[in-house]
Amino acid sequence: MEERRLETTIGNLHLRTPLLTASGTSGSADELAGLRESKATAQALGAFVTKGVTLEPRRGNPEPRVIETRAGLLNSIGLQNKGADRFLREDLPKLWQYELPVIVNISANSVEDYAKLAAHLLANDGGQITGLEINVSCPNIKEGGVAFGVDPKVVERVVRGVKAAVPRGRDVLIVTKLTPNITDITVPAKAAIAAGTDALSMINTVRGVAINIHTQEPYFANVSAGLSGPAIKPIGLCMVWDCFAKIPECRRRKVPIIGIGGISTWEDVVEYLLAGASAVQVGTAWFVYPDVFVEMKKGLEKYLDDNKTTVRELIGKAHGTCS
Amino acid sequence: MLPIQIKNLLDRDGWTLRDATARHRGRRLEFFFTSRPTRAVTAALRRIQRADRNRFQTIGVVIAPTTAAMQRLRSCANADKFPRALFASLEELRAVAAGTIPVKSDKRGGITSFKAEILENTPVGGAQISHYRLAFKAPSLQNMQPPQFIMMDTKPARVPFGVRPVPRGQLRGAIDLTPQPLLKRPFGICRDFHPHFPIDYVKRLRLPPTLAVALYPVLPDHFDMLYKVLPHGVGTPLIAKLKRGQTVNMLGPLGRPFDVRRLRAEGVEEVHIIGGGVGMAPLILLVESLRYYGFRVKAFLGIATLQSLRYRDELAATFGEQPRDAYIYIDDLLAAGVPPEDVYVSCDSGKPARIGRGIPPANLFAGFVTDLYRRETHRSTGKTCAFTCGPNRMMELVVEITAQAGIPLRVLLEKRMGCGMGVCFSCVCKVRLADGADDYARVCTDGPLFDAKDILWKNDDSKQPSATCTCAPRS
Questions:
Q1: Tell me, what CATH number does A202's domain have?
Q2: A138: annotated active-site residue
Q3: Containing domain of residue A25, as a range?
Q4: Among A103, A254, B236, B262, which is disulfide-ready with A249 (CB 3.0 to 4.6 Å)?
Q5: Phi/psi at A2 (nearest 5 deg)?
Q6: Taking CB atoms and an 8 Å limit, are A264 and B160 in contact across chains?
Q7: H helix runs in B293-408, sequence order
Q8: Is B404 exposed, middle or buried (0-12, 13-18, 19+ CB in 10 A)?
Q9: Which residues pair with A14 in a beta bridge?
């Protein structure tokens, strides 16, 4: 009982705690292993979401790659990663040691490549991949990413393709990560649900620009970059709220929501749960404060004790008083 | 009686030992054998301190039977129980006498976030302050190996991002529009007072060198760094406001350690250190390590003006000494064990005035450090390698010079960083892979030390040069 109050469910996946790493900020096993508190961190996590993986290795964008803003961080990394093959060979076995469900974030340049990548990963992972998070929301790459995420038809095709790539008889959680750079997030959310996604995660970074006043030109080679950090928390919270309120599947938790965006303290986690998220991902705060998951778990436990409740009971509770 | 091994060590350095006192040209070391703090030892040490005052002619050395016992003594050591004492263990003294240098490993490895207490944050340079010397105390940070670095917050530690209710009537000013940096900033450690490196004290106290490697100071958790406040910066001006006694969140140790004993295997005898301005700061820890293992180090320092390096040295207060005037980098290099005749200083603004400290006037130069270094490369005495850190243009020139002279070069890069632990991929520089292709490597986990021939200095698809040394982060 002691442990169960933190438990939550995403599709068929039971999570020990609602705390997940956020893709892009989570690195792979090596970075976690480098921490002196790696064990405590792994124990505080419900699942590990990897950094974005692509079929071929990607070099990423030219520098500079990050600019700090007030209460936030603009990044233009451009999905630097070593490609699916090296991920399977080098990172996955190490991640598996932490005895956490592994959700692999996948990215591609075309609808077909998403399916190809998913099929390739699931055929060669030795059953170690628990779920796939489809990234149709990265603002820093030219094709794929946001360009796909804003078009509900493309989202639907991508999700359908990945869904079809799952080998028969295997239970793989398919999560679709949505972009906030859109007028109404429920449109791509509904498209993903129609295509059969098991869960939604929102939000990816918000597009932003930084200009160097001394050289009088934009900082980033791509001009725009992705904003994350505490600055975007209210935006993410609002999008989770909208989906929970307006989409019946989300409300009934048939398609649960994973909340992302600026979560930095346990209070933020509770807010996201109350807004309708079944779990949360923490990214930028982890850079600043590597103990963040351990501290969040502690804070969350205390809150649940004080209010005599469980994580499951909190999900979407704030909607109770609104129609 | 002192064991014969210690006598041998002292003999090698020309010291004479009688009873428990070693003498050399008016200087004295008094030895005390104990495994626990006693009133008699404390009283004797206090007498020495009173009689010696600030001259550093007589030093008390507390010798414990085993290394473990010595570490226990040091951990309970404070100025009260062991005024101005150094520590040693018989075990290690015997090892040193037998020709082996003691190497200890710390079991608590791995990156950790910890709180550090600011001991001092001293402006350097008088009227035109740009550098600061920051000393901090961090018991959790152990086993820093050069050229590892730390990342620190720009504000005193509080609940991170916690929502603080605003009291009634105080709404004005509650919203702070000054930049509130989110990320930590990376800095190289310029001196640590780690057991392995008591050389700072060695220099100040002028101890017998062979004995000095086995002597331990009382500050095992005390670190020094030098940073520069940048005119358009956001983070460094805030760090400059940190006060003594405040605690700051830090992360470390970060970066790949470089074991200087590798150079021995490569047959290196002489090492050139070329530092441009604040680029010298992270190299000093490396210099200490090099000197500890007996390499000859020649240091080439490029600065704007000598005046900008002047400050009041508060470290002296640790010994109950009056603060004194000192130059950052120059005194740090000397303290790290570089002989004065191997310290070269170049000033962009003209030939520096006499520095003293035994540095020959011929080592002072007007112009860029690269020109000075070009002049001196051919005077190396044995197999040589070089390390550099500084502005991008300077490092490129050093690459050219060393390539012509056939000296292998390693460069220490410092970049704008997000996380410091290899997760975010923002501190990248372009490198050449073994197969000739190029790739982005992370300065934080793949570096910060790189082989110069692996780095692609010209980065065509970037708006900025690939390897910009920021030394302190630019924002």
A1: 3.20.20.70
A2: yes
A3: 4-321
A4: A254
A5: -45, -45
A6: yes
A7: 330-335, 369-376, 392-405
A8: exposed
A9: A9
Tell me which residue of A234, A48, A64, A206 sits closest to A128, measured CA to CA: A48
Instruction: List the pLDDT tens digit at each of the 475 positions of chain B.
Output: 567 777 887 887 788 888 888 888 888 888 888 888 888 888 888 888 778 765 667 878 888 888 888 877 776 655 567 776 788 888 888 877 776 765 544 445 688 888 888 888 888 887 777 788 888 888 777 667 888 899 998 888 764 444 455 566 655 555 555 566 888 889 988 876 543 333 444 455 566 766 766 676 655 577 888 898 887 788 888 899 888 888 898 988 888 888 888 888 888 888 999 999 889 988 988 887 887 777 888 999 998 888 888 887 665 555 445 566 778 888 888 877 788 888 999 998 888 777 777 788 888 888 898 888 988 887 777 789 999 999 888 999 999 899 888 889 999 998 888 888 888 888 888 888 878 788 888 888 888 999 888 888 765 444 343 333 333 333 3
Q: What is the DSSP letter of A179?
A: P
Q: Is A144 on the interface with B (CB under 8 A)?
A: no
Residues 163 through 192 of chain B touching chain A, CB cutoff 8 Å: 163, 177, 179-184
A313: contact with B, CB 8 A cutoff: no
Domains and CATH numbers, chain B: 4-97 (no CATH), 112-158+179-253 (2.40.30.10), 255-413 (3.40.50.80)
Of the candidates B184, B183, B446, B423, the one whose C-alpha atom is nearest the C-alpha of residue A35 is B423
Token digits of residue A200: 């939604």
* B433 in A contact zone (CB under 8 Å): no
Angstrom distance (rounded) from CA A245 to CA A247? 6
Most A CBs within 10 Å, among B161, B185, B430, B445, to test the A interface: B161
Torsion B435-B436-B440-B441 (CA) sign: positive
Is residue A154 within a helix (H) or strand (E), and if so which, with residue range?
helix A152-165
Rounded Cα distance, A296 and A284, in Å: 14
